[in-house]
Model the fold of this input.
Amino acid sequence: MTTQQKVVFEKVTKLFQRKGEDLEVLRDIDLSVAQGEFVCLLGPSGCGKSTLLNIAGGFERPTSGRVLIDGESVLGPDSRRVFVFQEYGIFPWASVWDNVALGLRQLSKDEQQRIVSQVIELVGLKGFESTYPQELSGGMKQRVEVARALAVDPDVIFMDEPFGALDSLTRLSLRSELIRIWHESGKTILFVTHDVDESIQLAQRIVVFTDRPGCIREIVPVPMEHPRDLGSPEYGQIKNRLYDLLGVSHQV
Amino acid sequence: MNYWPLYVSLMALAVVGTARWQSARQQSVLLPMAISCFLVVLWELACRWTQSRIFPTPGQTWAGLLELIESNRLWGDIAASLFRVTWGFVLAVAVGIPLGLVVGWSTRTFRALNPIIQGLRPISPIAWIPIAILWFGIGDGAGIFLIFLSSFFPITVGTMAAVRNISLVHQRSAMNFGLSGLELFRRVVLPAALPQIITSLRIALGVAWLVIVAAEMVGMDSGLGYLINDARNAGSRYDLVVATMLVIGMIGIVLDLLIRRLERFDEVRWGYATR
Done:
């Protein structure tokens, strides 16, 4: 059986100009992500993994190489593939409802009503439709952002450390909800994180990056079914493997 | 000898002394009132010690204020000043906010127009008075033009800065969901900039209220500024001068309170620190 390739990176290299000098952030990234796959990009801070996601999202251009989605070169942002930001990308001046409806402007009022209430229910924000983001906790804001992304029924969701600013308990519960939503919707998800545990809990495959300039060190598969047992020996083995690849010791 | 300053001071001291039993709301009313009482007492004592015959005492100023109110002169001058400020300010809002949004958003327009705006901005509106009179004559037209100038720059520059401060994440969100053109302005650029725009409106209205008095002193024949000049020229009526100054201050407070109500809307409250 051949799985269909959704997102393909071909020799993506990115240089930044800093004080007149070239800074190589990414070097020759080759990666394909299958339709419906959940892939984590894992690496130390500053390794270029977020830059790679921004290139895939169409917000930045690669210096050389290209990104193909469904066989077409990415030339700019597109609402068929939605980005979920680390610092909240939802609009503080709009209510939860208006934020979630942002991408549905072309639809009729009835249709908007149907979709918005459905995704708000899905992320567990029922009853908060007319609330403004300011009055929500960090975790709830991030749910609004996920709901806004799901509302447009995108093919691909890019998530740039979406739970990075949250406390560890909220992170854990949002991860299991994300997995539930992923199972229900079958979206392709690229998820950037520097958290080893987060990547093992979420991904089918983990792409481990080296320090700058970011290259792919290895791609580690996680052959575990959800819900995953965080105490299982298999989990521990993958964790050790990732720590080895990242060059960190196992003991503190 | 009249001992009222002593009694007033004691009452004000009692208010300040019991401050810890007052609620926050009471404090923010009672404490400024008590301090104002001390200032009035200082003013009275200064008049007694210096035995000035020109500078009015608080009592004389109060009498002057009553005289202005009874003569019906005051209302006409307040109306004249407010009329000029309102129209000049409304015109400046109508031109300044759209211009600031466009210049702030489009980098090319910003490069083209920003140096010109920054070059005209430091010219005091007062310096424009001769030209205002040349173009519009003595009267409302010149006043409205000067208020327009003095509010236009704070509003335009404030709006420009607000737009250029819109966070990258919000810009990218807008791009991601395909917003463009007028919709982009209505749904993202304007609401994102609104809290800072309201702050610039506040500053602009404050400046407008300063400038109208100066303009009326020099180049107009009505309004509160003219009233001050007239009271001095018609027999050194300094009691009327100071009474008018106090009226100007009061109206300034009311204008600021009115414009601050804009900060309370749900759409902009996120933009202000809560303290």
